[in-house]
# Entry
Amino acid sequence: MSRKAATVALTALAPISWGSTYFVTTEFLPPDRPLFTGLMRALPAGLFLLALTRRLPRGAWWWKSAVLGALNIGAFFPLLFLAAYRLPGGVAAVVASVGPLFVVGLAALLLGDRPTVKALLTAIAAAFGVSLVVLKAGAALDAVGVIAGLLSALSMSAGTVLTKRWGRPEGVGALALTGWQLTAGGLIILPLAFLLEGAPPALTGTHLAGYAYLAFGNTAVSYFLWFRGIERLSASSVTLLGPLSPITAAVIGWAALGQALGPVQLLGMAIAFGATLAGQLNPPTKKQTFSIAENNGQELSMDLEGPTVRR
# Structure
């Protein structure tokens, strides 16, 4: 397996993990506490990574971490939950699936990546495939929910592109950067959760187990893999892994909750998965080879993929 393929596979584990969020939330957590759930996902995970890495931001990275934490976590979670409560789940997923289109536009604006026909078509195909998987006939629309869903997708897309643009400080690992963002995002959600939802609910052992999974497996590990992937892959490649989340949610719903998967849903999965795979393929590049004759009879051949020695 090539290094890029390994990176794609590891990064894909993040949206696959996020696809389990709905199942865990409905089956293991107290109902009607979306902000508290967002808080319990972000802040414990962030504080754990801070304690593990023992690194704090310095200089400009204090405000950069706050901005990235707000976009990727602090604003994203509340907007996502607002959309989920105002819209049927399928509609919310379809609205969120426009994220790759936002990333294409923001990458052109902030990274100088010219949008290609392939990037646009794969983003559209991914959104269409997701709509076939999750959208039900007669689904109702709510203006506030649609706006919240679009803003949540825009927030995460902007966070993805800015994470790619800013990179990370020299000598600081992706694990520490993940901890900074999760902590900042959790601190943003903290006052909102208490102001809008009141005191925390009484928690059972099942609730604590669910929150532990969300905080550490679903958030700390998954966001580390996601930010690591952003660093090593193009922004559009990473965001086109996003459709794996609703696909995973649909498979879990079928396997664990007895939800039906008909031909239309299976077709949508195939389209969305195909778009995800297409988003990871780079167009072939023309090799440029330069040869240098050596006195000892060796010829050093260098191309865009690196040097090789030919005898």
